[in-house]
């Protein structure tokens, strides 16, 4: 059984790394097959001797198996991280290709050790960053020139990200202007519930690159960046915790504890600038000019990641951690827009059995979510090994955030509608980690769905019937004379044939019963999937109900406010209307009581008065004419004066 050549439908190259076990007295259940001059590719697992269930010996094929003595640098070179980096850098004048490197395994099997290293040794991530910065050093934007190109780098982002230079980002978090920085390692990452805030705010620490492990180093022989290109390296980090995405560079170390607990989940969606491809929207991204800056950003993100102590691992990852290095590239001579390819490194949380991990409460609930997402991942990977025979089953990657993030870019994108360029599917490498002396059930389950090929060998257990019959036949063969005497030859032959048939049938029964056991296990797994899917549906339904209820409440409140506003407005209008009516009425009453005469009426009134006065004057004149001449003279003088000043006599 050879690991099949990777067909186009394959999602991953799958490597197996065995860790040196600390349970020295435990029974070893996993053996690596010698491969002569080649690298080992096959392993067999057999159930432990105290396992009473009749189970088959299973043989698995991987792209390559690394045994316990493999060093970090052997893994780095052996699993092909260098070709992944080369792909991301892209050939001369060509866009790069996305790369994905992930680890999968039971809790405590060495995933984080492989990807992120330890206090003493670098992991694959640090080595990959080292190689990236070394290989792009001639084309990388110099820190002094960064300010002028920064706007164009930020504009090339399609994910609604907030972009920072590393200096600005680190100073905004620690505010020490590159001053002496303390060191916090992953091993000291606080337990679940506490966050980096509690440490950062007290000590205001930041990882100091010189205190981080410097080994192993990697030489970059054979890696060539595009010499005609100008490069910029942008880092972002996020985690998938309880099926929700959270920014690990969100700066919660500078926020209050309540703010950390209320971290805003981000969406994985198509954006306006990225209509044909989903991206994690709204992340903080940091442009790094050198390895030191990149390592500080990495450590900052790791300190925010959820880890907790469990019965299986003192520093167990409680979330799936994603570390993304975007390599932006453009023609050095012409400038212009930047193309982007990303290397995503994923440290998956480990599957665990509650009984072994001795978890409870929130940590147990997290484990449920972790196991559920890994089960969906297992289904996708199972599809990969099922597809090896040429069938092209659809990979069900939309079941949870984890599989969506891992596989959304694994298939070629063709989107003529938006006139976007055809993107190559990402190149992906999965490293499965296992402890050969660890938990047999959990490890065998992961190996079953992650291996590229699997073979089951049925153990030949002699059945009772065949043993008796073969014993009887041997007896007869040993004493032919006795047989001759007791029965004819034909009867003996018949008996032999019957015995053979019985042996064959009992072997068949053994095989069928093994198959039945396997099918039962599969059915149980399927039932567990079904149950998990039902639980998920129920929780989704509850979420939708809650959302609807909240939306309805909001709408009712908005409607109530609108109605109250309309009511108040109507009341104001009525008041105004009433005021106007009263004003008109008042004016009407005033007019009625004291009408203002018009000009004609005034003239007529004055003329009337004038007439009356004239008449009075005439009667007075007449009276005067009947009196003494002196008085008459005075009256005539007054009349003359009237004529002089313009009063006409009637
Ligand atoms: N190959 C190895 N060589 C030496 N030590 C190892 C190796 N693999 C793992 N370890 C050690 O075993 C312990 C657990 O490993 P690690 O934290 O990497 O497990 P994990 O698979 O990431 O677990 P979890 O899923 O719970 O996060 C660590 O102390 C780590 O240093």
From TrEMBL:
Q: What is the protein name stated in its UniProt record?
A: Kinesin
Tell me what organism the protein belongs to: Rhizodiscina lignyota
| PANTHER family, sorted | KINESIN-LIKE PROTEIN SUBITO, KINESIN-RELATED
UniProt key word Coiled coil: yes
The coiled-coil segments of this chain are: 495-543, 596-623
Judging by the UniProt lineage, the source's domain of life is Eukaryota
Q: Kindly state which keywords UniProt assigns to this record, in alphabetical order.
A: ATP-binding, Coiled coil, Microtubule, Motor protein, Nucleotide-binding
Family the UniProt entry places it in: Belongs to the TRAFAC class myosin-kinesin ATPase superfamily. Kinesin family.
Q: Which GO terms describe its cellular component?
A: kinesin complex; microtubule; nucleus
Boundaries of each Kinesin motor domain copy? 11-456
């Amino acid at each position: 059984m050879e690991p099949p050549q990777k067909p186009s439908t394959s999602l991953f190259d799958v490597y197996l790394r065995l860790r040196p076990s600390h349970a020295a007295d435990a029974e070893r259940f996993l053996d690596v097959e010698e491969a002569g001059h080649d690298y080992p590719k096959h392993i067999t697992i057999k159930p432990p001797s105290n396992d009473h269930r009749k189970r088959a010996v299973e043989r698995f094929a991987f792209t390559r198996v690394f045994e316990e003595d493999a060093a970090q640098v052997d893994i780095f070179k052996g699993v092909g991280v260098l070709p992944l980096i080369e792909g991301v850098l892209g050939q001369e004048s060509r866009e790069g290709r996305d790369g994905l490197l992930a680890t999968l395994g039971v809790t405590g099997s060495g995933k984080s050790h492989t990807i992120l290293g330890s206090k003493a040794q670098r992991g694959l991530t640090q080595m990959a960053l080292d190689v990236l910065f070394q290989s792009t050093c001639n084309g990388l934007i110099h820190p002094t020139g960064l300010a002028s190109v920064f706007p164009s780098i930020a504009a090339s982002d399609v994910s609604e990200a907030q972009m920072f230079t590393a200096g600005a980002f680190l100073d905004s978090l620690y505010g020490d202007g590159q001053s002496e920085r303390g060191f916090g390692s992953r091993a000291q990452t606080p337990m679940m519930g506490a966050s980096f805030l509690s440490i950062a705010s007290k000590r205001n620490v930041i990882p100091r690159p010189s205190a981080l492990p410097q080994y192993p180093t990697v030489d970059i022989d054979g890696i060539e960046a595009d010499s005609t290109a100008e490069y910029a390296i942008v880092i972002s980090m996020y985690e998938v915790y309880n099926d929700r995405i959270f920014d690990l560079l969100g700066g919660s170390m500078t926020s209050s504890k309540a703010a950390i607990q209320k971290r805003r989940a981000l969406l994985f969606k198509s954006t306006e600038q990225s209509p044909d491809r989903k991206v994690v929207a709204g992340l903080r991204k940091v442009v790094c000019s050198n390895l030191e800056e990149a390592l500080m950003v990495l450590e900052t993100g790791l300190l925010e990641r959820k880890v907790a102590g469990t019965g299986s691992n003192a520093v167990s990852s409680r979330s799936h951690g994603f570390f993304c290095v975007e390599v932006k590239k453009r023609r050095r001579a012409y400038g212009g827009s930047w193309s982007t390819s990303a290397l995503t490194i994923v440290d998956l949380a480990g599957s665990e059995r509650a009984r072994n991990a001795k978890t409870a409460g929130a940590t147990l609930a997290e484990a449920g979510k972790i196991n559920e997402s890994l089960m969906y991942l297992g289904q996708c990977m199972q599809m990969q090994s099922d597809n090896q025979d040429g069938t092209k089953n659809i990979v069900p990657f939309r079941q949870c955030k984890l599989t969506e993030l891992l596989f959304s870019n694994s298939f070629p994108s063709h989107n003529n509608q938006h006139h976007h360029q055809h993107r190559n599917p990402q190149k992906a490498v999965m490293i499965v980690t296992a402890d050969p002396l660890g938990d047999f059930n959990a490890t065998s389950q992961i190996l079953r769905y992650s291996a590229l090929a699997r073979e089951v060998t049925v153990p030949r257990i002699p059945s009772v019937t065949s043993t008796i019959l073969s014993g009887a036949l041997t007896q007869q063969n040993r004493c032919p004379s006795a047989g001759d005497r007791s029965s004819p030859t034909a009867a003996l032959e018949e008996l032999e044939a019957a015995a053979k048939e019985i042996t064959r049938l009992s072997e068949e029964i053994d095989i069928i019963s093994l198959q039945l056991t396997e099918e039962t296990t599969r059915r149980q797994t399927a039932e567990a999937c079904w149950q998990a899917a039902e639980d998920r549906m129920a929780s989704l339904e509850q979420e939708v109900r809650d959302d609807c209820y909240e939306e309805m409440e909001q709408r009712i409140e908005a409607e109530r406010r609108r109605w109250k506003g309309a009511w108040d407005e109507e009341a104001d209008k009525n008041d105004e209307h009433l005021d106007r009516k009263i004003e008109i009425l008042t004016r009407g009453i005033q007019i009625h009581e004291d009408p203002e005469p018009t000009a004609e009426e005034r003239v007529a009134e004055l003329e009337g008065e004038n007439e009356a006065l004239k008449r009075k004057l005439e009667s007075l004149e007449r009276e005067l004419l009947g009196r003494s001449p002196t008085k008459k003279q005075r009256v005539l003088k007054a009349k003359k004066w009237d004529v002089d000043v313009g009063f006409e006599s009637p």
